[in-house]
Design goal:
alpha/beta, Purple Acid Phosphatase, chain A, domain 2, 5'-nucleotidase,  domain 2, 2 domains, six-stranded mixed sheet, 15 helices, 27% helix, 28% strand, globular
Length: 494
Amino acid sequence: MGIKKLTLLHANDIHGQLNFKVGEDFKINGGISLLSGYLKRERSKGPVFFGICGDVLQEDVLGSDYKGSNTMELINYLDPDAISLGNHELDYGLAHLLIFKECIKSPTLCANIFVSKVGQPLFTPSIVREINGVKILLIGVIPEAFFGKIISDEFCRKTLSYVDSYEMIRHEIAVHENDNIDMVVLMSHYGIEGDRLLAEHMPEDIHVALLLGGHTHIDMDEPEVINGIPVVQSSYGTTHIGRYDIEFDTDEKKIKSWKWERISLNEDTSDFDTGVDELADKVTFFKKVKKAAVPMFNFADNYKHESRLYETDLSNIVTDAFADIYPVDFIIMQSGSLRRKECGPVVTKKDFTELYPFDDAFCAVSLTGAEIKDAFNYLFSLKPDGSVMNGTFDYSRGFRLKVDADDCWNKGCKIEELTLYGKSFEDGKIYRVGMTKNCVKNCGKYFGISVPEEKVRVVSYSTQGDLATWFLKQEEPVTAPVIGERFTIKNLEM
């Protein structure tokens, strides 16, 4: 009993990035060999915990033709104590994920997804790991937004349900109340904003010691302590690993002291693991010998999306495609939805999934003209924290927004024109605004409005599938509309 020392190591958003990188100083950084070497060295000193907080897979990663099967052996070699579910684990569908879960030796944690008819979780909700005499309860949680990928077909929608994270954290703690648990650790894939809210609103009867996160790919230099809970992420890929060194008082059942750091994996901090190099070579070999990528569809030219702030060829193409697909008056699309800076003229499946990797539900939101005006006035207003735009967006054909940013950092921006097909929005008229479910959930943050459920109608559970189908139906190469007719902002000084 007394003071126990323990080490917790964590990674997130590996995304199948297995190869090292060479920096400007010609030093090798990251890669599966250095990650494994670091783990092997730390494990040789005594028991440690190692977990991965979501997104082991991604559809556009090295060897994607094998749908992650060529990386399973590598993950098993790393031997994580637990992997929590991320959104990209569902890139190939739920059936593939369930097979992947069985092939990976480490438990895949997710407490939120239930099989409704039998009242059982679809994944392992939590596990207990004892490290140097300290019993840790680890619980995996995801936001409800990712649930849309799981219920993309009718059978899953009728069979599965999402349960609130706080409810499930409380439930899992109760399940293990006789296991003499010393501390509770969350493995989350909410993203940093979601983790902040998760910690901030943690009920008083739930005692969480640490929150290990993922999804946002941020380089944190130190934890954010919110509501007494340290919140951390460890960059992304295999370039870094997060490390907690903790002193735990088993008599008082609380952490006496802790230190966290984000460690860069390089030749100075880690050793190469020759045992994993041979396995990694197989993945590289798969990449070299696979057949040439088969074209999926064609653009009329090599189109670009070089800025999230300004209208681009690719953003105009995609928003217009959504306008054709869904029964709405106009589209608002988060600019960050598009992740390639250029694409075409030949577009392969890999190109497409890299361009639009986020498969979300799509909603038609009923708003009055007055609400739309208020929303955009808020978007470009000067916020209390000194910011102006807290989100960047693209719009479909017919929508026109002109903004003057002169002196915006002192007064906010002035909207000079806000029209739809040349007509001003009528205050009392109802408009159907198309946006993803993720955008709907963040309307308060972006536009300063809360959207009640009765104003939202889900029209599709797979934006990615709908968009792919639209492109495949085009008989001629897709041509980008003229740039500059939807959103312009003048006098902006960054």
